[in-house]
């Protein structure tokens, strides 16, 4: 396991390296036993999310607590109805075939996406479409998935996907299924490898939940 001080320095460097950040120095980083806590504030939800993604790219990060607060500048503030209209428009533009299955709820700048879709990539696409909306302070994705496949089919497809992936050592990962729910366990060398394994699991048709128990930093 990498020393916490090294992980913290690398997370700070990764955030500061990103030229799209306008106020990197308002983000505070602390690390304990590989768990990174991000604090401070940004002026947009997109920057809050971008800081989290930067931390995930650093080797030795085992988990992240994102406590960054979004403090909108006066000129960026929007009313809840304005945010709702913009978010709905974004979904209709990006996912016209699914727009009728999704609903947007906004309260004090916090946007919640509700509804049901068949694939996880559609759920993620809905979130990706809404995320850039101006005025958002936080985003909650409550879109559910409709199971389509049998458990053995799901497990087989995930195991095959892990084997194909150049970014994952499949032999170190165990896949278990309970209906449409998947549990991953094992050991990998980096957060990126852990994330890729989870992404592969979510890519299987019929998956409604992925529980990731894969450990980071203990693989030989």
TrEMBL record:
| UniProtKB keywords | Signal
Name it: Periplasmic protein
Give the PROSITE patterns listed for this entry. BON
Query: InterPro entries from the entry?
Result: BON_dom, Lipoprotein_DolP, Transpt-assoc_nodulatn_dom_bac
Q: Which PANTHER family does the UniProt record give?
A: BON DOMAIN-CONTAINING PROTEIN, OUTER MEMBRANE LIPOPROTEIN DOLP
Superkingdom of origin: Bacteria
Q: Where is the signal peptide?
A: none
Membrane-spanning ranges = none
- Keyword Glycoprotein carried by entry: no
């Amino acid at each position: 396991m990498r020393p916490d001080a090294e992980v913290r320095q690398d997370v700070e460097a990764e955030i500061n390296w990103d030229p799209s950040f306008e106020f990197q120095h308002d983000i505070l980083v602390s690390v304990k036993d590989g768990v990174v806590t991000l604090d401070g504030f940004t002026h947009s939800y997109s920057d809050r999310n971008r800081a989290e993604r930067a931390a995930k790219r650093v080797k030795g990060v085992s988990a992240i607590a994102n406590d960054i607060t979004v403090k909108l500048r006066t000129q960026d503030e929007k009313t809840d109805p304005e945010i709702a209209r913009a978010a709905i428009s974004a979904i209709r533009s990006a996912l016209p075939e699914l727009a009728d299955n999704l609903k947007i709820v906004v309260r004090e700048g916090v946007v919640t996406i509700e509804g049901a879709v068949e694939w996880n990539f559609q759920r993620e696409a809905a979130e990706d479409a809404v995320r850039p909306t101006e005025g958002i302070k936080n985003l909650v994705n409550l879109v559910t998935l409709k199971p389509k496949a049998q458990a053995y089919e799901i497990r087989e497809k995930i195991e095959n996907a892990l084997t194909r992936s150049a970014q994952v050592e499949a032999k170190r990962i165990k896949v278990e299924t309970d209906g449409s729910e998947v549990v991953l366990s094992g050991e990998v060398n980096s957060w990126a490898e852990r994330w890729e394994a989870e992404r592969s699991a979510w890519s299987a048709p019929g998956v409604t939940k992925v529980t990731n128990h894969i450990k980071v930093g203990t693989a030989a």
